[in-house]
Design goal:
eight-stranded parallel β-barrel, four-stranded antiparallel beta sheet, alpha/beta, TIM Barrel, 2 domains, 339 residues, Alpha-Beta Plaits
Length: 339
């Protein structure tokens, strides 16, 4: 159920509504809009229907949400969500954010060299995996806490924000101490215990679509995070598994406008995983901008031939810099800022 409040609704009226909802053992979630607030009520529709919501002071209208995802729905929150990451705005249509860095953190010198080589682009968020979910148990699994310590030094030295993946509920608190954005990878996107845990954390979360996941399932995964009170969620399309052998995955570019129509959350594209080839990163990034994605997350490595993971899809720094400048020209034409 959605309760749309009047623009002039007072704090006292809002509190009265919330208290009545809680008395019925239901969960209220307040979403703040530019003109008015909305209260989403989570729980049994039969119980919710007992409340004559339209007669409550401050209520403009009340309506049921028929789709299984409630809090992520644009019907609940028509305005696009804007997430603030240390002053960097994500979402809302005015920016095109670029997150860049290696697949895995391999060492302090390597991370420093990469950022020094790309910082001229003006972007402010670096990616890098400390914990790596790998198909093979014999592949490099990440540096763990040592990798997080490296990220801490990079953050302090360059005054940037960072994003890294968390794989286990027991590691959420640890990773949140170091990372500004918590990433849930494609292989963990339906680890519901983990989704609930990052929902309690309050740090911004990036969810990557599973390789065989429908859009509905993807949005339901986001619903798990929002249901715990964390509305700072970024959705990332990173390619789905199809019959095509020439690419690592098939980037579902059509998913972006569909998801943005369904939800108020920011939507990113991962052009590195989407194609699995470095030469596809630039055209797929241009496509991301063209379909109004809110940003991209790109793998960049200063020595792809010797990368411990995903070297074949990583851009060299100079290639990345050239790509960003091309994207900047298009973004400016569209009235967007690269950041």
């Amino acid at each position: 159920m959605i309760i749309v409040l009047k623009p002039e609704a007072t704090k006292k009226e809002k509190k009265h509504i919330i208290d009545r909802i809680k008395e019925l053992k239901l969960t209220p979630r307040v979403l703040h809009g530019t003109e008015r607030d909305v209260i989403a009520v989570i729980g049994s529709e039969s119980i919710i229907s007992q409340l004559p919501l339209e007669v409550f002071p401050g209520v403009e209208s009340a309506m049921p949400v028929l789709k299984p995802y409630k809090l992520v729905s644009r019907k609940v929150k028509p305005d696009s969500t804007v997430i603030d990451v240390n002053g960097i705005k994500i979402g809302g249509g005015k920016t095109f954010n670029i997150i860049a860095g290696p697949c895995s953190i391999e060492g302090l010198g390597m991370m420093r060299n990469i950022w020094k080589s790309i910082q001229q682009t003006g972007i402010g968020i670096m990616r890098g995996g400390a914990f790596k979910p790998r198909t093979s148990p014999y592949s490099f699994q990440g540096m763990g806490k040592k990798g997080l310590e490296i990220f801490k030094k990079i953050k302090k030295e360059f005054k940037i924000s960072v994003i890294t993946e968390v794989m286990d509920t027991k590691d959420v608190e640890l990773v949140a101490k170091y990372s500004d954005i918590l990433q849930i990878g494609a292989r963990n996107i339906q680890n519901f215990s983990l989704l609930k845990e990052v929902g309690k954390c309050k740090k911004p979360v990036m969810l990557k679509r599973g390789m065989a996941m429908t859009i509905k399932e993807f949005l339901m995964a986001a619903e798990y995070v929002l249901s715990q009170g964390n509305f700072n969620v970024i959705l990332c399309e990173r390619g789905i598994r199809t019959f095509e052998p020439l690419t690592r995955f098939t980037l579902d570019i059509s998913a972006v406008p569909i998801i943005k129509k369904e939800t108020h959350l920011p939507v990113f594209i991962d052009p590195s995983h989407g194609g699995g080839r470095w030469d596809l990163v630039e055209p797929l990034s241009k496509a991301a901008l063209a379909v109004e994605a809110d940003g991209i997350i790109v793998e960049v490595h200063d020595n792809p031939e010797n990368a411990v993971s995903d070297g074949e899809q990583s851009l060299r720094p100079y290639k990345f810099n050239e790509m960003v400048e091309k994207l900047r020209k298009t973004a400016e034409f569209m009235g967007k800022e690269i950041c």
